[in-house]
Design a protein that fits this description.
mainly alpha
Length: about 120
């Protein structure tokens, strides 16, 4: 597929900027709320496009180490679930815990990065 210029991330950023800076100030009530929801969805899609490859690669390395061989991320996830269900991996295993923490952090970086920033400020 030929590379598009501007790329999807740039186009999504422009759409969000328009919605937030030009359209939302003219709206109120239901339509303002629905536009805010749309902005959030577009931002999630943009972050997914930007971060997916890096996160999947990182997850793949962690899963292969936990399961002990290399396959697709989906297959490795299924196998890890089976290992946990059948008590062949200890739920308190430090490597498993680190994998789960990192996976959650990566998901939140896409879905709600503000939540991570807010929790890091809690002492």
């Amino acid at each position: 597929m030929p590379r598009s210029i501007p790329d999807a991330s740039t186009l999504l950023t422009a759409a969000v900027r328009y919605l937030e800076q030009e359209l939302m100030p003219t709206l109120s009530g239901y339509h303002r709320f629905q536009t805010r929801v749309t902005v959030n969805v577009l931002n999630i899609v943009r972050r997914e496009l930007e971060m997916h490859e890096e996160h999947e690669s990182s997850e793949h390395v962690r899963l292969a180490a936990l399961v002990g061989h290399d396959r697709s991320v989906d297959t490795l996830n299924d196998e890890l679930c089976d290992l946990i269900r059948t008590d062949r991996v200890d739920i308190n295993d430090p490597a498993l815990r680190q994998h789960l923490i990192q996976s959650l952090a990566e998901a939140l970086a896409i879905n709600n990065p503000k939540w991570i920033a807010d929790t890091q400020n809690i002492s």
